[in-house]
Structure formats: structure tokens, C-alpha cells
Amino acid sequence: MKRKTKKIDISAYFFITPSVVMFLFFVLYPIILSFIISFQKKDLVKGIWVGVANYKDIFADPFFWLALKNTIIFVVVLVPVLTFLGFIAALKINKLSSLTRAFFRAVFYLPVVLSGVVISMIWKWIFDPSYGILNYLLELAGMRSVIWMASAGTLYYLMIVVFTFNFGTVLIVYLAAVAGIPEEIIEAARIDGAKSSAITWKIIAPLLKPTTFFIMVTQTIAVFQTWVVIQMLTNGGPARSTETLVFQIYREAFSFNQFGRASALGMVLLFIIVLITLFQKLYAGKDINY
Amino acid sequence: MRKIRLTLLLALCIMVSVAGLGAQTASKIRISYWFFPIFVTVPGYESNTANFGDWENFMIEEFKKVHPEIEIVPEMQTWAGGVDKINVAIAGGNPPDIVFDYLGRTGGWFLQGAGVPIDNLISKNVLDDILPTFKDLYTINGKLHGYPAMAWIQMQLFNKFLYNKYGVGNYLPANGTSQTIDDFKARLIAAKRAFPKGVAPYSLACGSEQGDYVWWEFIWGFGGTLFDQNGKIAVNTPETVEAFKFLLSLDKEGLITPGVANLKSGDILNLIYSNKSGGWAGNKGNYSALVSAVKQGTIEGPAEISLYPFPTKPGITPKSAVGPTGFIIMSKDPAKQKAAATFIEFCLQPKYMAAAIKAAGQLPATKSIASMNIYKGDPLGEVMQEVASKYPAGNFGLSNPNYNKIRTELSAQLQAMFSGLKSPEKTAADLEAALKKIIGE
User: Fold this and answer.
1) At B65, which helix (H) or strand (E)?
2) FRET label pair with B201: which of B77, B139, B259, B358, CA 20 to 30 Å apart?
3) Cβ(B375)–Cβ(B381) below 8 Å
4) Alpha-carbon distance B160 to A101, whole Å?
């Protein structure tokens, strides 16, 4: 029997070339360069090879561990909350009329399309101790005003802001996925006597597993990279208590011009994100294929 | 045939034009000049300088008349991202040829190898014109790293209109009067009693590293210092602790805007220009902005300011925080360096620079302009000049290679103190330990 030869359409290469070139130049090349720089004591102009000294310095610095802890708290709290609330909200909104659905989609997605700086500024006004609306409401209720951005709970208040940044994306992805579930499946379950909670958790949730996995991975990466909110609202304070890894990378590079140390921090962050993504793939995404 | 000939002729014309343009460009030296929005409505040149950037463009046009062989390409940077952009340009190996910026940054760039010494580029008579204090500040490793053009001086400003409106104007003595710590606090206490809710007697900010000099002013007022006489870190002293206790008391007693640990210098400006702060540390430039705010009708006026040196304990001479701004040459090409120096010398001519300095509300850094008494007839300017000449400049590490780290550490430690995480004693001890580590003592 004659073996069939597989015909390769070379035009496919032509279409993926721009993406590959962009990836090589703007992603892979900077990662490799950053990896090399992480072994140097490098300022704006000069670089001296120092081996693993930057990594040693980082791991000996208590503020690195504090920033890592803050970043992990962000991820551990925000990713499940975003995923869960996004899923629930999508189910509820999907049942509404198309006009109301469009309204909620627009409202929740607005912070995603607006500049991060603009949203942060609005939150800055809301949290302002002298003329912010939050303190105004507290005082109306006869309570004491709070210094929101310089208190023990600042990290958690920042999470509310980060939540508003990311929730729109989660909701839109879930809404699209929920709309794609065939109505017959739900109808069949109802005919079989399934209650709405069983339909939600035993039928819809498993069907949305690839979406949930996608959201968890992308949101983990997004939350790990939280920067603009910190920069605009607290500048890492009070007393460096709200610094995250990306904030530290920015500060080391652009305030102190220590590109070697900043690159080493970047490599550590990359390693953590890859590790978590692999872990998610291994456990949460076992039977998911794209 | 005719069509072909016409096409060939057209192509020839285009080639000749392009070659001509190329030749013209090649004969010119192009100098990139990056600066920040500082000068606007320059006295004597008001019609040409209504917007930020207009002054620099005007200077370039004037320069072109005498040096057509040099083309200056200006680029105004924003305060928000301009420094990052310069850093990226340097790191990318394509820095601007000239930058006009604050010593706290130009010194750092020079130390990293991004600037060239100007000792042999600028004419001797122009170099000799620099006031000795500024020459010292601009000398790094024995070389003059840039040319200081002007300097701000930090003073305490009070909104006289607000103090008068609420009946406590009598707590504001004549401009320039020296004041004790007790005078200062008594004023704030009186203002707190008189001012309505939401208007603070005074504002301080340590939410970011900017405005670091304000904190040093208070430390100096209690007799503390950053460096001792041998140039070693000497922050953990009873004087610094006393200053910290005093500052903490201002916050606890509600005499300053709430949220000092999170407020940034820019936030204070917003409070000033909305009449929500009765006093702050600043310079004469703030007054011009206040006048604009009143003119635009955004706040009640008239805009009136009282200006004083920072308060001290009795027997302690106030020190001034002085922040010079100047030119630095970054080009590595000798021909460009020479052209850049020519442009800088042109800009430094007293007839231009004196007007620009006045517009910025700053002080001259050169002998020739200092002798012109540019603020004659301007009460606030005269006070500023008097304070600058009367009191010595304090050292807050501006020309130290680790200046950015020093001030970042100061703000972090102060944030901890104002947030109640550390006592004044621990703040001083931790600050000293951290600064010693940064400097490598």
C-alpha cells in the first residue's frame, strides 16, 4: 500500500511570521538579555559581571520577602475571588435581557479599557483622607475617618482597586463561555429533575473548566504584575509595606538605575509565574486541551 | 518617448533635491535638547512665552540667527515620565545631547558615565561666573559635571488670605522674619482653632521621596544633620529624635493635613491651589500658581503669601535647602559636544537667563546675574534672595551618588513613624543604619 504523503501548506508560515518575529524581538530577546544582565552589576551605562551576587543580595533582603509575600497574598486572595464572582455574575447576567446584559458588560468592562492611571486617580480621590467620599460617608454615619492608604489594612484596600481593574475581563470571558453552552444540555438536566444549584455546579461549572483554567492562569499572571495601582496610590508605602515584586523591579531599575538587580528580580518573578502556571496546568487543567 | 523623457527628468529632479537636502543636513550639526516644563510667561518676552516650551523654542530661534550651522532639536519632557525616558535613552545608548534638569538627577547620570565634564568645553570666563557654592555642588570627582543655571530655595509659605480671613493673620509676621519652633507651632494651633473643617493649618508629605529637603529643614532646625563634619552619616542623634517627636506631634494634634504618610508633594500642590492648606514648604513659584488659580476663579482670593525661613530652636541658625538646575552634556561626539557647549553659553547670557530665572521664581547660580538684583521691587523675591544670602545651605545629600536611595529611605522611615509602626527613636536609629548601609560606611 502506498503511503500517503502529508502536504504542508507553507502559506501558514507566512501568516504566523509577524507574530513569531514580534515574539522573538519583543519577548524572547528581552528575556534572554534580562537573564544575562541579572548576572551583572549594571547601571545605565556600565555593566560588570558579578555572577550570582544580585540573586544573593535579593534573597538576603527582607524587603524582597515582604514584596513576595504581598504579591502572593494578592494572588491567593484575588484570583479565586475574581474567578468565583466572575462565574456567578456571568450566570446571573446571562439570564437578563440583551439590553441589560449589554449595560452590565459595559459597566464592568469600563475599567479595563480606561487607563490604569485614570482609574487609580479616581480611587485616590475616593480614599483621600481629607476630601474623599469614603471618609465623608463614614463621618455622616458618625464614624471616625480612616487614613486608607497609610494604615495596617492598606494592602487589602488596594486589592479592592485591583479587583475593579481585572473583574471586567473575567466577566466578559465567562459571559462568552456561558452563552456558548448548548441550551439542550441544561434543558435535559431540568427534565431529569436537576435543581438549579446542581445544574450550576455539576453541569455548567465542569463545562466551563477550560474557561476557568484560562482565567486562573491569565489572572494569576495579571495579578502578579500589579504595578500601576501601587505606584499611584501608595508608592509602596507606608514604610514599604505594600511593595510588590513588579513595583520593586520598577524602583530598582528606574529610581536607582540598578538594572542588574532589577533583572534578577524579574528572573525570579518569571520563575515563580512559570512554576505556578505549570502547577495549575498539572492539577487544575489535567483534562483540558486547547 | 516624450512621457519617458518627462519621467526621467522628474526622477532626476527628485534625486537632485534629495541629494541637496542631504548635503544641507550633513553640513549642519544636529543637537538634541531635552528639558522639563519650567519656564512660562518670561518677563520681557511674555508674548513669545505663553506656554511651557515656548521659551526654549524662542531661544533656539534666537540661536539659529547667530549659529545657522547648528540645529537644535528640542523635546519637552513631562514631569511624570520624562526622567524614565531619559534613563531609557541612556541605557539604550542613544541619550540626548543636552539635558536641562535638577542636580539630584544630573549628578547621578554623570556618575554612571552618561555625561561629559564641561571644564574644557565651556569658555573659562563663563565657568568663572559660577557662584562658588554651586561650583562645589557641581564638581564631581574633581570635574565640573554640568553648568548650574539657577536654584530654588525652600522656604515656609503661608496663605495670608486664609489666615486673615479666619482672623489669625496676626500670627503672620513680616516676610522673611526668622521664627522659632514655638512661634511656628503657636501659629498652627491658632489656625486650627480658627480654620473650618477640611482646611489644614499646614501640610507635609512623605508619601514619596520627593520633597525630602523639607524634612531635613526641620531636622536642621533642631540642630540635627545628615552628615557629620567628617562626611559620615550622623542621623541618630538626640536632635533628630527631637525633630521627629515634634513632627509627629503636629500630626497627632491635627495641625497638618491628615495622611502625611501617604501624601505626596503633588498632592500638597492640589491642596494649596484649592485653598485647603494654610501653609506648606515651597518656593516663590507656588505664589505664581496661586495667583493663576485666583485669576481663573477656581479659588477665593486675593492671592497673598507670607514667606519665612524654616523655624529653628532658639540659638540655632536656619539652613536653606537649595536645589540647583542646570545643563549637562551627554553627547560622546566631540563635534557635538562643542556645538552643545556653544548653545549652552548662548542660553546662559544674562539678558536671557535672568529673565528665565525670574519666571521660574528661582535664584541665580552665576555671579553676573546675582549682581543684577533681578528681584528688586518684588517683595517675595527680595525675601528669598535675602534668606539665601543670610543663611548657609544645608547638605541633604544632593550630590551624593546614592541620593535617590537616601531620600527613598528617609520617606520610608518617616512613613513608618507617621503610621505608628515606629517610635521617633527607632525611626532615627533605623534611618541611620539604613543610610550607612546604602553609603557603604
Assistant:
1) helix B54-66
2) B358
3) yes
4) 55
Residue B117 near residue B340 (C-beta atoms within 8 A): no
d(CA A34, CA A259): 9
- According to DSSP, residue B439 is labeled H
- Contact, B424 vs B417, CB < 8 A? yes
A45 touches chain B (CB under 8 A): yes
Predicted confidence band at B23 (pLDDT cuts at 50, 70, 90)?
A: very low
CB contact under 8 A, B418 and A238: yes
Q: Which residues of B touch A259 (CB under 8 A)?
A: 91
Residue A289 to residue A182: CA distance in whole angstroms: 20
Q: How large is the ipTM? A: 0.81
Tell me if A43 and B112 make a contact (CB, 8 A cut-off): yes
Task: Compute the distance between CA of residue A23 and CA of residue A30 in angstroms, rounded to an integer.
Answer: 10
Q: Are A213 and A284 in contact (CB under 8 A)?
A: yes
10 Å Cβ neighbour count for B329?
Answer: 29
pLDDT confidence band for A151 (50 / 70 / 90): confident
Q: Which long-range contacts (C-beta less than 8 Å, at least 24 apart) are formed by A248-251?
A: A248/A63, A248/A64, A248/A67, A251/B408
Q: What is the pLDDT of residues B207-229, one digit of tens each?
A: 999 899 999 999 999 999 999 98
What nine digits make up the cell of A209?
473548566
Element (H, E) at B391: none
User: Would you state the pLDDT for residue A286?
Assistant: 65
Pairing of strands B143-144, B155-159: unpaired
CATH numbers and ranges of domains, chain A: 52-287 (1.10.3720.10)
Q: Which three cell numbers stand for residue A15?
A: 501568516
| Per-residue pLDDT at B24 | 47
> CB–CB of B261 and A238 under 8 A?
yes
| pLDDT tops 70 at residue A1 | no
Could you identify the residue written with the cell 530652636?
B313
Cβ distance of A150 and B418 shorter than 8 Å? yes
**Global confidence as pTM:** 0.85
- The dihedral built from the CA positions of residue B384, B387, B389 and B393, taken in this order, carries a sign that is negative
- The pLDDT tens digits of the residues spanning B266-291 come to 888 888 888 899 999 988 878 877 88
Handedness of CA B237, B137, B247, B185 (dihedral sign): positive
DSSP B147-187: EEEEEEE-EEEEEHHHHHHTT-GGG--STT---BHHHHHHH
Q: How far apart are CA B151 and CA B322, in angstroms?
A: 6
Kindly report the number of other CB atoms within 10 A of residue A167's CB atom. Answer: 21
Q: Which residues of B touch A45 (CB under 8 A)?
A: 90-91, 112-114
Stretch (H or E) spanning B188: helix B181-194
Selection from B179, B201, B202 nearest residue B191 by Cα: B201
Chain A contact probe: residue of B199, B415, B418 with most A CBs at under 10 A: B415
